[in-house]
Write a structure and sequence with these properties.
single chain, alpha+beta, globular, 4 helices, Aminopeptidase, 7-stranded mixed beta sheet, about 180 residues
């Protein structure tokens, strides 16, 4: 059974992800990060015990792009379609939000090709995508494969995606100069 993750799932999600992260197959996710992003996660549980055996997240990157990430399935359950089901659930969630494309950074090219993803050059992804890469031990020598799946046709006028998000803050200028006795003006 697939359901949205709950706060109480965080320790099990962290353990499952850590199993793969410790062998360099994915990024570690701290408990703090998981609590902050728990709404992005789905879990697969067995019936009737409800043990968590798989996890996947879909993170909105921009109006027309989302990332499917942190896909992990307990090794005892490999080959049963759980990973495929989790990815499809994440894709369906992105579709429900009218996201045009989803992407993954992966080592499992064949798996994602069977799910309709195509390899793309990493340079086709916006810089905003690479925030997680700062935490990655392979940052300078990334060997992951970038793959994209188009879910919806491109809108007639697409909202541009910035390469970098910057904010400009203006310091307000005083509207009235105050003359306070005893203070220089």
């Amino acid at each position: 059974m697939i359901r949205r993750a709950m706060v109480s799932d965080v320790p099990e999600i962290a353990d499952l992800i850590s199993t793969f992260a410790s062998s360099g197959q994915m990024l570690f996710r701290s408990h703090a990060e998981l609590y902050e992003t728990i709404r992005d996660f789905f879990v697969y549980t067995d019936q009737p015990d409800g043990n968590l055996i798989g996890v996947c997240a879909v993170e909105i990157i921009w109006a027309n792009l989302a990332e499917i990430k942190s896909l992990a399935v307990d090794g005892r359950y490999f080959g049963r379609g759980i990973g495929r089901s989790l990815v499809q659930y994440a894709v369906d969630d992105a579709l429900a939000m009218k996201i045009q494309r989803v992407f993954v950074l992966t080592y499992k090219q064949k798996f994602f090709e069977h799910l309709g993803f195509s390899v793309v050059d990493k340079s086709q992804l916006p810089l905003k995508v690479w925030g997680d890469c700062l935490k990655c031990p392979k940052n300078k020598a990334c060997d992951e494969i970038a793959m994209i799946r188009t879910l919806l046709p491109a809108p007639a006028v697409a909202e541009p995606m910035p390469d970098a998000v910057t904010r400009h803050y203006e310091v307000p200028t005083p509207l009235v100069k105050l003359n306070i006795p005893g203070r220089p003006s």
